[in-house]
Amino acid sequence: MDIALGQLKLAADAETNLAQITASAEQAAASGARMLVVPEGLTARDSADPYAGANHPQSLDGPLVSGIRAVSARLGLAIAGSLHTPVPGARVANTGFIVDGGELVACYRKIHLYDAFSARESRHVQPGVDEPPVVEIDGLPIGLMICYDLRFPETARSLAVRGAQLIVMPAAWAAGPLKEMHWQVLAMARAVENTVYLAACSEVSSVNIGRSLLVDPLGVVVAAAGTGPELLIGHVDPGALARARTVLPVLANREYRDPQLRSAGGHRGPA
């Protein structure tokens, strides 16, 4: 499967962002990609207000996702991203989604909120409570997580033990000291420690780094973007993943069993 990462500089309105997503989707489909990942917070972005999207929430049946579903149906392209959605109370949810064939096939409310480096996402966003989903597209199990989830290894591990071979991650990774290094090192670690492909797509702006990347199951960055808007395309090879899991069977060898990381698999040596 070829996967595209649409590294966008998002605007302060959903209509402009839908137009950008549509253009990226058309370019991705023309290049032979089967899936497109776009950034986090698609309803609105403003460099002067990191929580602009929280002030412009839309439901999953609103015009933005409905437009993305129409693009998906027209192009035969799966699309993953995130937007802020209304929930009861004063805050909103940061909701990831995957659409395919015009249908919403997965959604996930971000669990880990970015309360770090002086940011306080939890002031505006209510955390999710359900574990992130795994869905199959063309026989490939795909997991979904969002941005700050990358810093919590349990998130990716929970997807891997439930069968994910590719993890897609919309993000808006904030710039700052060491942040680009953290982004790449953590993406490589999440991929190799779970022997999965990881497709991480960050928004690019004066406050977010871009640097979207695709990492293979042995932790090798196989495609990487720069610091401007661009479409990045890479290949996900189930055969390479199977070979990686043969030479590096960390999922089969693991002994630690947190009850939250549900799996009947694994291996135990002699007593």
TrEMBL record:
Keywords: Hydrolase. It comes from the Bacteria. The keyword Hydrolase applies. Residues 1-238 form the CN hydrolase domain. Signal peptide: none annotated. GO terms for molecular function: hydrolase activity. PANTHER family: DEAMINATED GLUTATHIONE AMIDASE (PTHR23088:SF27), NITRILASE-RELATED (PTHR23088). This is Predicted amidohydrolase.
